[in-house]
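Appendix B. One record, verbatim.
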Amino acid sequence: MAQVASRRPSLVGRCLVNPVVDYLFVGGAITVPIFIFTYFFPQLTPTNADITMRIFIVFNGAHFAASTVRLYTKPGAQKEFPLLSWAFPVLCLAAVGLGLWSPFIGRNITALYLTWSPYHYAMQTYGLVVMYAMKSGAKLESRDKTQMWLVCLLPFVYAVLTTPQGGIFWFVSRQWLATVPALWLLYRGTVTIVSAATLLLPVSLFWQLHRMRGKNVPLISLVLQLTNAMWWLGTTYLNAWFWTAMLHSIQYLIVVVERHVSEQMARPNRHGPLHRPVFYAAGFYGVSFVLAVIMFFGMPLIYVPFGYTATQSFTLMAWVINLHHFIVDGFIWRTKPAAKQPALSRPLESEPIAV
């Protein structure tokens, strides 16, 4: 007679692609060997401008463009967000022009990007942590989600305290802060406490959820929190632009492509040799790549006839594209209540949140 064994759910959890891809790239575990190797062999980080720009457009640029492609390919998104779809891009182009015209506006756009970027990373991490937990059967309560949100927010707090041209140094200079001994001591102590909490509290919360609350939170949820902490604590803010930004971009691209492919495969009356996941994935990435080339190399040329150099235009355009990406993500990953969801939408537990 067959025996029914009640087994504890796997700590690996349910994955989007497979455990190797999810843990290494979505979870970011590949960060550990990369950071170790680049510490001992710093020459592994390319310094040639041509090479870094090509890598940037393949990963980072495509990831920024992917949120725009997602906006125009997600079922019902254009009707739900008409201003975001059509008016907001024009507003962003105007912001670049104003930033080039006024150095004051340009500096504040740069500071806004540098301050908001770690918050975007934190919220994407939170969304993925909750997504993997709920996909794996964890019955998360409001208290659990709130604590996860606070823990995921810690790298952002650290970045606010340490970002050279953003965060608190958007408003006060480090030099001035150092001239007030009491404030400087308080500042250094706060940075130390936040640094320790960023690494220790995710482990503590994971242990509590498993041992004390019986929640089936998969290990990848902890890996996500620790790797995002490493992205901000493992190197300086301005030196993190190559590896950290690339790993974040790969993480995003895997999630958004998986979602797009799942929606396309679920559409009725789709047949033929091209109705396969690999073609939908290649098509989505291909469009994102082409759009990235246009956004980063084509659109900055709009401002050159007005007396601004291509380098000036490219730099400010890059910051504004980042801000556009942050805001678009804040809308396109939102999930409606079940009763109002389109037929092809997934439930909350499989919907990542990236802001």
